Amino acid sequence: MASEDSKSFGSSFSHYFRTYSTVKKIKVHNTSVAILHRILQFVVLAYIAVYIVWLKKGYQDVQMPSGSSVIKVKGVARVSTDNSSFNSNNIKQDLWDAAEYLIPPIENNAFFIATRKTVTYDQTLSTCPSALSNKLFCNSTHKPCKKGTRPLNANGFLTGNCVRSQENKTRHVCEINAWCPEERSSSIHDYHIDLMALYQQGGLIEIQQKWKCNFDSLEVEKECFPTFTFNLLQSGSDERSPGINYRFAEKYSVNGIKYRTLTKIYGLRFIIAIRGSGLGYMIIGEIICEFIFLKFHKYRNEYRRIKTKRYHLNQSKKCDDSTKVV
Length: 326
What we know:
Layout: H1 2-18, H2 31-55, E1 60-63, E2 76-83, E3 91-97, H3 98-101, E4 110-129, E5 157-164, E6 172-180, H4 194-201, E7 203-214, H5 220-223, E8 227-234, E9 245-254, E10 257-281, H6 283-295, H7 300-307, H8 313-322
Parallel strand pairs: 2-4, 7-10
Antiparallel strand pairs: 1-10, 2-3, 4-6, 4-10, 5-6, 7-8, 9-10
């Protein structure tokens, strides 16, 4: 049985390499079927010629852009500077130029423009009432001020004492050991305009730079120009994480006591995203056409003669020597 199977497999294998199969064509004279067949062929050719080649430019090669943008920001602005200590009437107007509101001066595909700052002067390491925005309220019967613990919404450690608030004398809050006076967080709940919240708390904005260039066009310099789209990724009115801000401190000492000035900067961070495509003539078509002209066209000899020029270096050297004047 095994020998018969091996013989059958050997004959099939030999038959596979010794025979050739082809398609037999039969011409059927039927006008309606022939017309339908030609119409379908015409539709397919028209689809390829009009839609794929002409409209979609299928003969072109597509290249995605890669690169970076360099942004320069210039100008001056008046900015409200808020002293975050618990004093009233502490808002003043400052004049900023690019050296002050552009922080840092150079970034890769991004830039940050400061719109507002809050300054807390003369902070020193001591004890003070926590800010009302920390919501560490207490009274004679309710004292959540566990000594040595650090609440998530405070910038120091609790001392265990319940003291009167500096912002509202009728309220009592937990005392903390931190850089005092504590920074006061301004609220924007009274603002109903998202743009104002964006200026007050900062935000994250994407600038989408989209290129669409056709390098086959005669007016490539006019067509190859980017369009810009602005998308707001994070606004100042977000409840969970409002705006963009950061802090920095300037430390100094007076009579051996260390102080610092805490500055909180709010602003708009812009991120540049580069997208698009560049279309150019695909070289495959040129290679195929050149091959047809050189090998199969009836005027291929004339085409070769015009396209190819023979040049002998020895003959050119003799000509150069004959032109020398003795």
